[in-house]
Amino acid sequence: xxxxxxxxxxxxxxxxxxxxxxxxxxxxxxxxxxxxxxxxxxxxxxxxxxxxxxxxxxxxxxxxxxxxxxxxxxxxxxxxxxxxxxxxxxxxxxxxxxxxxxxxxxxxxxxxxxxxxxxxxxxxxxxxxxxxxxxxxxxxxxxxxxxxxxxxxxxxxxxxxxxxxxxxxxxxxxxxxxxxxxxxxxxxxxxxxxxxxxxxxxxxxxxxxxxxxxxxxxxxxxxxxxxxxxxxxxxxxxxxxxxxxxxxxxxxxxxxxxxxxxxxxxxxxxxxxxxxxxxxxxxxxxxxxxxxxxxxxxxxxxxxxxxxxxxxxxxxxxxxxxxxxxxxxxxxxxxxxxxxxxxxxxxxx
Amino acid sequence: xxxxxxxxxxxxxxxxxxxxxxxxxxxxxxxxxxxxxxxxxxxxxxxxxxxxxxxxxxxxxxxxxxxxxxxxxxxxxxxxxxxxxxxxxxxxxxxxxxxxxxxxxxxxxxxxxxxxxxxxxxxxxxxxxxxxxxxxxxxxxxxxxxxxxxxxxxxxxxxxxxxxxxxxxxxxxx
Lengths: 349, 174
What we know:
The complex is a heterodimer.
Chain A: H1 9-29, H2 34-39, E1 42-43, H3 50-67, E2 108-109, E3 112-113, E4 115-116, E5 119-123, H4 124-133, E6 140-147, E7 152-153, E8 168-171, E9 180-183, E10 199-208, E11 227-234, E12 238-239, H5 254-266, E13 274-282, H6 283-286, E14 298-308, E15 327-335, E16 341-345
Chain B: H1 15-31, H2 33-43, H3 47-63, H4 74-90, H5 103-109, H6 114-125, H7 128-140, H8 144-151, H9 155-173
């Protein structure tokens, strides 16, 4: 933007418009896919559905009130509310079939048992991988935290039992903004615990894929869809931890973090890098989402200025055009406890 | 049962049609993400808050998609949702995390020169209502009428805020 005569309203307005367009361009260069992140949580009400949806929802709610079958988002579930029970309990839920013994759970680490009957309890991405790799309907133990956020599944279909929106949504860590595992209810009528907003309920489910009752000929990926067998373990409802509680007892100091970041940045900067900002906090609070880093992992986020190769040049010979000009900033994210680099991005977001 | 006839002989659209319609609308919404994020960066002060705001905007929009009457006004509709959500946030409890400002570094990394960075900072220092009026009308391109509707104020109020906004910006940039 060239120097303008700011007393001229037209020039000022033009400068404002240019400033906005530059921001749009900057945002377009680094798409955040924010809609995709919302998509899994909200079932939209399509245009033209209101009346039909309302009538259908009324009928469904009436049926649910009678049978107590529907999950969160449509009607409160009858049964244990989960909200006020006291301590954690092992195998608080009945075994799913008569004669089946309650499973024995391994050590409880981080709020969820690590094993059940010797089988690993899988969380987050590990569970997703297990679903994708499954070849039959063998049981899989999946753990996570139910939370109190509302889920809307207004578009009711005959296949709702095979929709994860009507089933369980387990956070991979007890905080919002982290990945979730969706489990369909299948033919199970086990109630879903209502968890107050701002609270979490650690839970372990036994699920299976390749459900024989899952309707074929639909868009549902029956081979890999996790379907509930039974709730095999529940802890107690607890307030969602403040991210501050994840700060390690000890970690590297700010000067140390800055020194490490500068040393790292020096490797590919053509000028000596300098620090712009240094802040510590849970990863998702101080660094951009999208990386495979737990949102509550405590990190140092250090922005440095220098002259760094643009991202699209990294894989090519920088001397070969076309190549974007160097960028002036870089974000270096260090693990708070160990000081190791967990992410580096240029330009800094 | 992909299609069924309801009372009065009206046909419900096929489920596949509805899904296609939804998919198309979602794609249209996603295409407005850069403009929304750019707007959000002037509505709230921190980058993470701006992303949160856009996410909240999409969430609200998806829940109220049946209230979108004119698809050609999708961007204006989304922007209005964002403006109102931002206004609500200003009255909500303070965030528990202290955010270090990296505005200048972000602007520099976006290739902005000193004049643009100074103007950006000047806009961000405007009082909330003045800033929103300037943002919507002079930057996003809303008409005065649309700006007034989004801000839930009269057109005269918008005109007054715009006059104040330009005057303050001129003073700051002098």
